[in-house]
Amino acid sequence: MIYLIRHASAGHRFGLDADDVDRPLDEGGAQEAQQISEALITQPIRKIMSSRAVRCQQSIAPLARQLEIEIEIEPNLFEGSHHSATALIKSFFNYPYDVVACSHGDVIPEILGDLIEEGLQIRGGRSCAKSSIWALSTSKEGRMSGLYFSSPLEFKSLS
Asked: Does the reported pTM lie above 0.70?
C-alpha cells in the first residue's frame, strides 16, 4: 500500500518573506499532522518519504517519530515534479511493505491523472484537500486501485 498524503495546513503561500520551501505548518496543520500519525500508526509502514518543503516534512514527522523511521527527502515529490513523481510512486507498487509519500496539491492530481490513464480505478472522492490521504494499491493481477480519504479522521474511522 502507498499512502500519498498532501501536506497539512500551512497558512498562505504569500504570507511569508522567506522562501516558500521553508513555510511551516500553522496551528491547525500541526493538529492535522498528529491526526495523520494517529490514522496511520497501525499500518505496516516501513518507508516514509517527503518533499523537501518544511510543511511536508512536518506533516509526517509525528508518524515518523512514532514508527522510529527516518524521513527520506525525495526531490521528485516537490512542487512541479509531475512525471518524475509518477515514476517514483509507481516504483512503490512492488514494495513488500507500506510506503508513505508526502507531497503537494499540484503534484498529487498529476500523479493520479497519469495513473488513471494507466488503469487506476478510483473509489470514493476525487480531490486533494490538505492532509488528505490517497491509499493506492495493486492486486496480484497488477490492477491499480485508489481510495480517497478527505482527512486523517475519515481514514481512521474507516480502517
From this structure: yes
